[in-house]
Design goal:
This protein is an alpha/beta fold. The chain is about 50% helix and about 10% strand. The relative contact order is 0.13.
């Protein structure tokens, strides 16, 4: 038998109250704090931003590749709610090329999702701003990070959740596809960590969203698994390069739908596939709450954790 310390939670007597306020206080987050999340202001990124806002009302900065247009939507498009209705409205408006129609649907849905996220975070009491920034563009990332720090005089934490998936067996995958999947995840994270590393007083924590594929592997995801495995090294190196830093890579299992029509990384087809294999899906509220608890109470020396709903 080996004696172990009780950790921060056990030694202080503090405990989570269920709303994240205790965790936010342990992290030193309040309404004057600033947290930057990179990953599109959608899906899991948006859900964790909402968890932070509800717990601390901190200032939230968001980077994503979706550009927000200034004008209002066409009336017919604005009245369309799902992809089928949007398709009909766009065709009625004159679009005929199938590829152009699908790109327009994707753009409209993404922009709507970002705007919904911004309204939700504001309603939770956080000051929020969104910038269209490609995480792989190092110059753009550095400029935006410096502007944020210059405006607020601080940057308390960063969360990197960007990435793309192009699943194929490695024998069928092109080098360009492998490179795109790997570099989007790894180069983007490196650019962000390098940018905040140049600040005079950078963030206390950096969270990198990885994947269970990095630890258990997954059919057709050799590139994605390698990229998420590389995140661990990036986060650990960043944490070791300064005092008082926590660099944490979270290897997530599959997530359940967000409850607002957003399936995150899991399509309806994948949901059926997982159900057939007996794989449980992470509840969005519990998943993001668990991350906040890990940051607040988890061992500071841990640079990577795995979170699933299946008890792997």
């Amino acid at each position: 038998m080996t004696e172990e310390g009780l950790g921060l939670l056990g030694s202080t007597g503090a405990g989570p109250a269920g709303d994240g306020a205790a965790e936010a206080a342990a992290l030193g987050l309040d309404s004057t704090s600033v947290v930057l999340l990179v990953g599109g202001a959608r899906g899991i990124t948006a859900r964790f931003a909402a968890t932070l806002a509800a717990a601390s009302r901190c200032r939230i900065e968001l980077f994503g590749r979706t550009a927000l247009t200034d004008g209002e939507e066409d009336l017919a498009v604005a009245a369309a709610h799902d992809a089928g209705e949007l398709r009909s409205a766009l065709i009625a408006g004159g679009l005929r090329v199938p590829a152009e129609i699908e790109r327009a649907i994707g753009r409209i849905q993404a922009e709507r999702e970002v705007r919904t996220t911004l309204r939700g975070l504001t309603a939770l009491g956080s000051e929020v701003r969104y910038r269209a920034v490609d995480a792989r563009d190092g110059d753009a990332v550095r400029r935006a990070v410096k502007e944020i720090h210059a405006e607020h005089g601080r940057l308390d934490g960063v969360v990197y959740a960007a990435g793309v998936i192009e699943d194929k067996l490695i024998a069928e995958k092109s080098p360009a596809s492998y490179d795109r999947v790997f570099r989007t995840k790894v180069d983007g994270a490196r650019e962000l960590l390098d940018a905040v590393g140049e600040l005079p007083d950078g963030p206390r924590f950096a969270v990198l969203f990885g994947s269970i594929a990095a630890t258990l592997g997954n059919r057709g995801q050799s590139d994605y698994a390698a990229a998420n495995d590389a995140l661990e090294s990036l986060g650990a190196r960043w944490a070791a390069s300064g005092t008082g830093r926590r660099g944490l890579t979270v290897h997530w299992g599959p997530w359940a739908p967000m409850g607002d029509g957003n399936h995150g990384m899991v399509t309806p087809e994948l949901m059926r596939h997982y159900a057939g294999r007996g794989i449980q899906l992470i509840d969005p509220e519990e998943g993001t709450g668990s991350l906040l608890r890990e940051l607040a109470w988890g061992p500071a020396a841990d640079t990577a954790v795995v979170y699933t709903a299946s008890g792997w």
